[in-house]
Amino acid sequence: MQRIHDKLHNGHWIYLYDNDAPILLPCLYCRYTNVTGLSVVHEKKRVEDTGDFEFSLREVEIGDDAQYVRGNQLGLFLEWIENYNNPSINIEWHTALPSEYINEYINEYLIVEMQKSEIVVSKAISALCSYYNWLTYFFDIKYKKIFVFPEYRALARANNKRVLIVKYLLPSTREALYRQTSSLLEEIVLRNGGELGCRSSENRCFYLDDFKADGQTHDGLRSLFSQLKKFPEKEEFKYHLSSLHAKYGSARTLYISRTHLHLMMRYWKTERPMSSSNNLLVSNSRNLTKGEVISERYGSTVFCKTLSKLLKVMSENPEAYTGQQSLDEANVYHHLRHSFGTDIFHDLCIAAKKKHESITTESRVYIETARRLGHKVDGKYANQTTKIYIHACGEREGLLREVVDAQE
Question: The pTM is what?
Fold first, then answer.
Protein backbone atom coordinates (compact mmCIF):
# COMPACT_ATOMS: atom_id res chain seq x y z
CA MET A 1 0.00 0.00 0.00
CA GLN A 2 0.92 3.67 -0.26
CA ARG A 3 0.04 6.56 2.04
CA ILE A 4 0.39 10.16 0.90
CA HIS A 5 -0.32 13.46 2.61
CA ASP A 6 -1.85 15.16 -0.41
CA LYS A 7 -1.75 18.90 0.24
CA LEU A 8 -2.29 19.90 -3.40
CA HIS A 9 -5.60 18.25 -4.32
CA ASN A 10 -7.28 16.62 -1.32
CA GLY A 11 -5.67 18.51 1.53
CA HIS A 12 -5.45 15.38 3.65
CA TRP A 13 -4.00 11.86 3.88
CA ILE A 14 -4.96 9.36 1.20
CA TYR A 15 -4.24 5.63 1.14
CA LEU A 16 -3.78 3.56 -2.01
CA TYR A 17 -3.38 -0.10 -2.85
CA ASP A 18 -0.28 -0.96 -4.86
CA ASN A 19 -2.34 -0.66 -8.06
CA ASP A 20 -3.11 2.99 -7.11
CA ALA A 21 -6.76 2.24 -6.29
CA PRO A 22 -7.91 4.12 -3.15
CA ILE A 23 -8.53 2.28 0.12
CA LEU A 24 -11.97 3.78 0.35
CA LEU A 25 -13.05 4.00 4.01
CA PRO A 26 -9.75 5.32 5.43
CA CYS A 27 -9.72 7.95 2.64
CA LEU A 28 -13.32 8.91 3.42
CA TYR A 29 -12.48 9.17 7.12
CA CYS A 30 -9.63 11.60 6.44
CA ARG A 31 -11.91 13.54 4.09
CA TYR A 32 -14.47 13.76 6.89
CA THR A 33 -11.98 15.07 9.47
CA ASN A 34 -10.52 17.57 6.98
CA VAL A 35 -13.80 18.99 5.69
CA THR A 36 -15.75 19.04 8.96
CA GLY A 37 -12.89 19.45 11.46
CA LEU A 38 -14.62 16.81 13.62
CA SER A 39 -13.78 13.52 15.28
CA VAL A 40 -16.05 10.92 16.89
CA VAL A 41 -15.49 10.15 20.59
CA HIS A 42 -16.94 7.49 22.89
CA GLU A 43 -18.36 8.87 26.12
CA LYS A 44 -19.52 7.40 29.42
CA LYS A 45 -22.16 9.26 31.43
CA ARG A 46 -23.75 8.36 34.77
CA VAL A 47 -27.57 8.37 34.90
CA GLU A 48 -28.56 10.28 38.04
CA ASP A 49 -31.78 8.35 38.72
CA THR A 50 -30.32 4.85 38.51
CA GLY A 51 -26.59 5.36 39.05
CA ASP A 52 -25.90 3.27 35.95
CA PHE A 53 -23.70 4.38 33.08
CA GLU A 54 -24.78 5.18 29.55
CA PHE A 55 -22.39 5.03 26.62
CA SER A 56 -22.69 7.10 23.51
CA LEU A 57 -20.80 8.43 20.51
CA ARG A 58 -20.66 12.09 19.61
CA GLU A 59 -18.71 14.44 17.34
CA VAL A 60 -16.17 16.91 18.75
CA GLU A 61 -14.03 19.54 17.08
CA ILE A 62 -10.32 18.92 16.37
CA GLY A 63 -7.63 21.15 14.87
CA ASP A 64 -5.45 20.77 11.79
CA ASP A 65 -2.57 19.18 13.73
CA ALA A 66 -4.89 16.55 15.21
CA GLN A 67 -6.24 15.76 11.74
CA TYR A 68 -2.71 15.24 10.41
CA VAL A 69 -1.66 13.05 13.35
CA ARG A 70 -4.77 10.87 13.13
CA GLY A 71 -4.24 10.31 9.41
CA ASN A 72 -0.55 9.53 9.87
CA GLN A 73 -1.16 7.04 12.71
CA LEU A 74 -3.96 5.37 10.77
CA GLY A 75 -1.59 4.91 7.83
CA LEU A 76 1.07 3.30 10.04
CA PHE A 77 -1.55 0.91 11.39
CA LEU A 78 -2.67 -0.05 7.87
CA GLU A 79 0.95 -0.75 6.94
CA TRP A 80 1.24 -3.06 9.95
CA ILE A 81 -1.89 -4.92 8.84
CA GLU A 82 -0.46 -5.26 5.33
CA ASN A 83 2.67 -6.90 6.78
CA TYR A 84 0.71 -9.27 9.05
CA ASN A 85 1.52 -12.81 7.93
CA ASN A 86 -2.00 -14.23 8.05
CA PRO A 87 -4.35 -14.43 5.05
CA SER A 88 -7.40 -13.64 7.20
CA ILE A 89 -5.82 -10.40 8.47
CA ASN A 90 -5.62 -7.94 5.60
CA ILE A 91 -6.45 -4.37 4.63
CA GLU A 92 -9.61 -5.38 2.74
CA TRP A 93 -11.12 -6.67 5.98
CA HIS A 94 -9.53 -4.23 8.44
CA THR A 95 -12.88 -2.65 9.33
CA ALA A 96 -14.08 -5.99 10.76
CA LEU A 97 -10.83 -6.64 12.61
CA PRO A 98 -11.50 -7.90 16.17
CA SER A 99 -10.36 -5.60 18.98
CA GLU A 100 -7.71 -8.12 20.06
CA TYR A 101 -5.68 -7.48 16.90
CA ILE A 102 -5.95 -3.70 17.18
CA ASN A 103 -4.82 -3.94 20.81
CA GLU A 104 -2.02 -6.27 19.75
CA TYR A 105 -0.76 -3.47 17.50
CA ILE A 106 -0.89 -0.98 20.38
CA ASN A 107 0.58 -3.20 23.08
CA GLU A 108 2.84 -5.85 21.59
CA TYR A 109 4.00 -4.01 18.49
CA LEU A 110 4.24 -0.32 19.50
CA ILE A 111 5.06 -0.71 23.21
CA VAL A 112 7.05 -3.96 23.34
CA GLU A 113 8.69 -4.36 19.94
CA MET A 114 9.06 -0.77 18.77
CA GLN A 115 9.55 0.68 22.30
CA LYS A 116 7.40 3.71 21.50
CA SER A 117 6.89 6.36 24.16
CA GLU A 118 3.64 7.03 25.99
CA ILE A 119 3.09 10.08 23.79
CA VAL A 120 3.34 8.10 20.55
CA VAL A 121 1.15 5.31 21.94
CA SER A 122 -1.44 7.86 23.06
CA LYS A 123 -1.51 9.36 19.56
CA ALA A 124 -2.00 5.92 18.04
CA ILE A 125 -4.87 5.11 20.43
CA SER A 126 -6.55 8.47 19.74
CA ALA A 127 -6.27 7.93 15.99
CA LEU A 128 -7.57 4.37 15.96
CA CYS A 129 -10.35 5.14 18.44
CA SER A 130 -11.39 8.09 16.27
CA TYR A 131 -11.38 5.97 13.09
CA TYR A 132 -13.21 2.94 14.49
CA ASN A 133 -15.68 5.19 16.39
CA TRP A 134 -16.38 6.91 13.06
CA LEU A 135 -17.04 3.52 11.45
CA THR A 136 -19.46 2.67 14.29
CA TYR A 137 -21.17 6.08 14.20
CA PHE A 138 -21.78 6.24 10.45
CA PHE A 139 -21.68 2.59 9.29
CA ASP A 140 -22.91 0.72 12.39
CA ILE A 141 -19.74 -1.37 12.59
CA LYS A 142 -19.23 -3.09 15.95
CA TYR A 143 -17.62 -0.83 18.57
CA LYS A 144 -13.93 -1.52 19.31
CA LYS A 145 -12.42 -1.01 22.75
CA ILE A 146 -8.81 0.09 22.22
CA PHE A 147 -6.48 0.57 25.21
CA VAL A 148 -3.12 -0.16 26.85
CA PHE A 149 -3.14 -3.44 28.79
CA PRO A 150 -2.58 -2.87 32.55
CA GLU A 151 0.52 -5.08 32.55
CA TYR A 152 2.06 -2.95 29.75
CA ARG A 153 1.51 0.49 31.29
CA ALA A 154 4.79 0.50 33.23
CA LEU A 155 6.71 -0.46 30.08
CA ALA A 156 5.03 2.34 28.12
CA ARG A 157 6.12 4.80 30.82
CA ALA A 158 9.63 3.33 30.82
CA ASN A 159 9.85 3.89 27.06
CA ASN A 160 9.79 7.63 27.80
CA LYS A 161 13.14 7.36 29.54
CA ARG A 162 16.37 8.27 27.81
CA VAL A 163 17.80 4.86 28.82
CA LEU A 164 15.28 2.24 27.71
CA ILE A 165 14.41 -0.84 29.72
CA VAL A 166 16.70 -3.84 29.18
CA LYS A 167 14.63 -6.49 27.42
CA TYR A 168 17.15 -9.31 27.76
CA LEU A 169 16.80 -11.45 30.89
CA LEU A 170 19.78 -13.60 31.82
CA PRO A 171 19.18 -17.37 32.27
CA SER A 172 19.75 -16.96 36.03
CA THR A 173 17.18 -14.14 36.11
CA ARG A 174 14.65 -16.30 34.30
CA GLU A 175 15.26 -19.11 36.79
CA ALA A 176 14.71 -16.68 39.66
CA LEU A 177 11.35 -15.78 38.13
CA TYR A 178 10.36 -19.42 37.66
CA ARG A 179 11.07 -20.10 41.35
CA GLN A 180 8.56 -17.45 42.39
CA THR A 181 5.61 -19.03 40.56
CA SER A 182 2.72 -20.39 42.64
CA SER A 183 1.90 -23.51 40.59
CA LEU A 184 3.18 -25.88 37.93
CA LEU A 185 0.82 -24.20 35.46
CA GLU A 186 2.41 -20.80 36.08
CA GLU A 187 5.94 -22.19 35.89
CA ILE A 188 5.26 -23.98 32.60
CA VAL A 189 3.74 -20.87 31.06
CA LEU A 190 6.76 -18.74 31.99
CA ARG A 191 9.21 -21.44 30.87
CA ASN A 192 7.35 -21.69 27.56
CA GLY A 193 8.31 -18.06 26.99
CA GLY A 194 11.90 -18.27 28.22
CA GLU A 195 12.83 -21.76 26.96
CA LEU A 196 10.64 -22.23 23.87
CA GLY A 197 10.14 -18.64 22.72
CA CYS A 198 6.35 -18.77 22.95
CA ARG A 199 4.18 -15.68 22.87
CA SER A 200 1.60 -15.42 25.65
CA SER A 201 -1.24 -16.38 23.28
CA GLU A 202 0.69 -19.42 22.01
CA ASN A 203 0.40 -21.14 25.39
CA ARG A 204 -3.05 -22.15 24.11
CA CYS A 205 -1.47 -24.23 21.33
CA PHE A 206 -0.27 -27.26 23.34
CA TYR A 207 -2.50 -30.26 22.60
CA LEU A 208 -2.67 -33.57 24.44
CA ASP A 209 -3.83 -35.81 21.57
CA ASP A 210 -2.19 -36.15 18.16
CA PHE A 211 -3.58 -33.55 15.78
CA LYS A 212 -3.78 -32.70 12.09
CA ALA A 213 -2.34 -29.36 10.99
CA ASP A 214 -0.49 -27.90 8.01
CA GLY A 215 -1.10 -30.95 5.85
CA GLN A 216 -0.06 -33.77 8.17
CA THR A 217 -0.58 -35.44 11.56
CA HIS A 218 1.65 -34.35 14.44
CA ASP A 219 2.47 -35.80 17.84
CA GLY A 220 0.44 -34.46 20.72
CA LEU A 221 1.92 -34.22 24.19
CA ARG A 222 0.65 -37.64 25.28
CA SER A 223 2.75 -39.13 22.48
CA LEU A 224 5.75 -37.13 23.65
CA PHE A 225 5.17 -38.26 27.24
CA SER A 226 5.34 -41.87 25.99
CA GLN A 227 8.62 -41.10 24.24
CA LEU A 228 10.08 -39.91 27.56
CA LYS A 229 9.97 -43.50 28.84
CA LYS A 230 10.72 -45.17 25.53
CA PHE A 231 13.86 -43.12 24.80
CA PRO A 232 15.60 -42.36 28.14
CA GLU A 233 18.71 -41.05 26.34
CA LYS A 234 16.75 -38.49 24.28
CA GLU A 235 17.24 -34.91 25.53
CA GLU A 236 15.05 -32.96 23.09
CA PHE A 237 11.57 -33.54 21.68
CA LYS A 238 9.97 -31.85 18.70
CA TYR A 239 6.51 -30.29 18.95
CA HIS A 240 4.71 -28.70 16.00
CA LEU A 241 3.18 -25.28 16.67
CA SER A 242 0.54 -25.14 13.94
CA SER A 243 -0.11 -22.19 11.65
CA LEU A 244 -3.81 -22.34 12.56
CA HIS A 245 -3.21 -20.96 16.05
CA ALA A 246 0.34 -19.58 15.96
CA LYS A 247 0.54 -15.83 15.80
CA TYR A 248 0.96 -14.35 12.31
CA GLY A 249 0.06 -17.79 10.92
CA SER A 250 3.69 -18.95 11.09
CA ALA A 251 3.99 -22.65 11.86
CA ARG A 252 7.23 -23.66 13.53
CA THR A 253 8.90 -26.47 15.44
CA LEU A 254 9.45 -26.14 19.18
CA TYR A 255 12.34 -28.11 20.69
CA ILE A 256 11.22 -29.11 24.19
CA SER A 257 13.94 -30.21 26.60
CA ARG A 258 13.55 -33.44 28.53
CA THR A 259 13.33 -31.52 31.82
CA HIS A 260 10.62 -29.20 30.51
CA LEU A 261 8.61 -32.07 29.05
CA HIS A 262 8.80 -33.86 32.42
CA LEU A 263 7.39 -30.73 34.04
CA MET A 264 4.48 -30.73 31.57
CA MET A 265 3.77 -34.42 32.28
CA ARG A 266 3.89 -33.81 36.03
CA TYR A 267 1.37 -30.97 35.66
CA TRP A 268 -0.87 -33.20 33.53
CA LYS A 269 -0.81 -36.01 36.09
CA THR A 270 -0.98 -34.06 39.35
CA GLU A 271 -2.30 -30.51 38.96
CA ARG A 272 -4.42 -30.23 35.81
CA PRO A 273 -8.14 -30.15 36.73
CA MET A 274 -10.61 -32.57 35.13
CA SER A 275 -11.42 -31.20 31.71
CA SER A 276 -12.80 -32.29 28.35
CA SER A 277 -10.44 -29.84 26.62
CA ASN A 278 -7.66 -31.20 24.43
CA ASN A 279 -5.44 -28.31 25.57
CA LEU A 280 -2.74 -29.14 28.10
CA LEU A 281 -2.92 -25.80 29.90
CA VAL A 282 -6.36 -25.09 31.36
CA SER A 283 -7.70 -22.74 33.98
CA ASN A 284 -7.79 -23.90 37.60
CA SER A 285 -9.81 -20.93 38.85
CA ARG A 286 -12.94 -21.51 40.89
CA ASN A 287 -15.23 -19.64 38.53
CA LEU A 288 -16.96 -20.81 35.34
CA THR A 289 -13.70 -20.92 33.36
CA LYS A 290 -12.27 -23.85 35.35
CA GLY A 291 -11.16 -26.58 32.96
CA GLU A 292 -11.23 -24.27 29.94
CA VAL A 293 -8.10 -23.36 27.99
CA ILE A 294 -6.20 -20.46 29.58
CA SER A 295 -6.74 -16.98 28.13
CA GLU A 296 -4.44 -15.40 25.56
CA ARG A 297 -3.14 -12.93 28.15
CA TYR A 298 -2.66 -15.47 30.91
CA GLY A 299 1.12 -15.52 30.40
CA SER A 300 1.32 -11.74 30.63
CA THR A 301 -0.78 -11.69 33.79
CA VAL A 302 1.29 -14.43 35.47
CA PHE A 303 4.56 -12.71 34.52
CA CYS A 304 3.39 -9.39 35.99
CA LYS A 305 2.34 -11.06 39.26
CA THR A 306 5.53 -13.13 39.51
CA LEU A 307 7.76 -10.17 38.70
CA SER A 308 6.18 -8.13 41.50
CA LYS A 309 6.77 -11.00 43.92
CA LEU A 310 10.43 -11.34 42.89
CA LEU A 311 11.06 -7.59 43.10
CA LYS A 312 9.71 -7.60 46.65
CA VAL A 313 11.86 -10.61 47.63
CA MET A 314 14.96 -8.97 46.12
CA SER A 315 14.35 -5.70 47.98
CA GLU A 316 13.86 -7.53 51.30
CA ASN A 317 16.90 -9.81 50.86
CA PRO A 318 19.49 -7.77 48.93
CA GLU A 319 22.43 -9.86 50.19
CA ALA A 320 20.90 -13.03 48.69
CA TYR A 321 20.72 -11.41 45.27
CA THR A 322 24.18 -9.86 45.06
CA GLY A 323 25.24 -9.84 41.44
CA GLN A 324 21.71 -10.56 40.24
CA GLN A 325 20.57 -8.68 37.15
CA SER A 326 18.45 -5.65 38.00
CA LEU A 327 14.79 -5.95 37.10
CA ASP A 328 12.17 -3.30 36.48
CA GLU A 329 8.40 -3.32 36.96
CA ALA A 330 8.26 -2.47 33.25
CA ASN A 331 9.54 -5.92 32.20
CA VAL A 332 6.84 -7.99 30.47
CA TYR A 333 6.22 -11.59 29.36
CA HIS A 334 7.43 -10.85 25.83
CA HIS A 335 10.91 -10.22 27.26
CA LEU A 336 11.14 -13.95 28.03
CA ARG A 337 10.59 -14.71 24.34
CA HIS A 338 13.00 -11.93 23.37
CA SER A 339 15.64 -13.43 25.67
CA PHE A 340 15.14 -16.87 24.12
CA GLY A 341 15.57 -15.37 20.63
CA THR A 342 18.71 -13.50 21.70
CA ASP A 343 20.25 -16.72 23.05
CA ILE A 344 19.46 -18.54 19.78
CA PHE A 345 20.94 -15.67 17.74
CA HIS A 346 24.06 -15.53 19.95
CA ASP A 347 24.67 -19.31 19.89
CA LEU A 348 24.27 -19.44 16.11
CA CYS A 349 26.78 -16.60 15.74
CA ILE A 350 29.26 -18.54 17.87
CA ALA A 351 28.70 -21.74 15.88
CA ALA A 352 29.20 -19.87 12.61
CA LYS A 353 32.28 -18.09 14.04
CA LYS A 354 30.79 -14.70 13.19
CA LYS A 355 30.46 -11.49 15.17
CA HIS A 356 26.86 -10.55 15.82
CA GLU A 357 27.45 -7.07 14.36
CA SER A 358 28.21 -8.62 10.96
CA ILE A 359 24.89 -10.48 10.60
CA THR A 360 22.54 -9.39 7.77
CA THR A 361 19.04 -10.48 6.78
CA GLU A 362 20.58 -12.79 4.16
CA SER A 363 22.70 -14.63 6.74
CA ARG A 364 21.88 -18.22 7.73
CA VAL A 365 22.13 -17.10 11.35
CA TYR A 366 19.34 -14.57 10.88
CA ILE A 367 17.15 -16.91 8.82
CA GLU A 368 17.45 -19.74 11.37
CA THR A 369 16.71 -17.37 14.26
CA ALA A 370 13.64 -16.11 12.41
CA ARG A 371 12.53 -19.69 11.74
CA ARG A 372 12.85 -20.65 15.42
CA LEU A 373 10.77 -17.61 16.44
CA GLY A 374 8.19 -17.74 13.66
CA HIS A 375 9.27 -14.40 12.17
CA LYS A 376 8.95 -13.41 8.54
CA VAL A 377 12.32 -13.08 6.82
CA ASP A 378 11.09 -11.17 3.77
CA GLY A 379 8.78 -8.67 5.42
CA LYS A 380 9.03 -4.91 5.51
CA TYR A 381 10.48 -4.94 9.04
CA ALA A 382 13.00 -7.77 8.54
CA ASN A 383 16.02 -5.47 8.83
CA GLN A 384 14.57 -3.90 11.96
CA THR A 385 14.12 -7.33 13.56
CA THR A 386 17.76 -8.17 12.86
CA LYS A 387 18.93 -4.94 14.46
CA ILE A 388 16.95 -5.75 17.60
CA TYR A 389 18.88 -8.99 18.14
CA ILE A 390 22.23 -7.45 17.24
CA HIS A 391 21.61 -4.81 19.92
CA ALA A 392 20.33 -7.46 22.35
CA CYS A 393 23.53 -9.51 21.96
CA GLY A 394 25.45 -6.43 23.06
CA GLU A 395 23.14 -6.10 26.08
CA ARG A 396 23.65 -9.79 26.87
CA GLU A 397 27.44 -9.48 26.90
CA GLY A 398 27.27 -6.33 29.03
CA LEU A 399 24.97 -7.96 31.59
CA LEU A 400 27.19 -11.04 31.85
CA ARG A 401 30.22 -8.82 32.50
CA GLU A 402 28.31 -6.94 35.20
CA VAL A 403 27.37 -10.17 36.97
CA VAL A 404 30.95 -11.47 36.86
CA ASP A 405 32.34 -8.16 38.15
CA ALA A 406 29.83 -8.08 41.01
CA GLN A 407 30.82 -11.56 42.14
CA GLU A 408 34.59 -10.91 42.20
Answer: 0.83
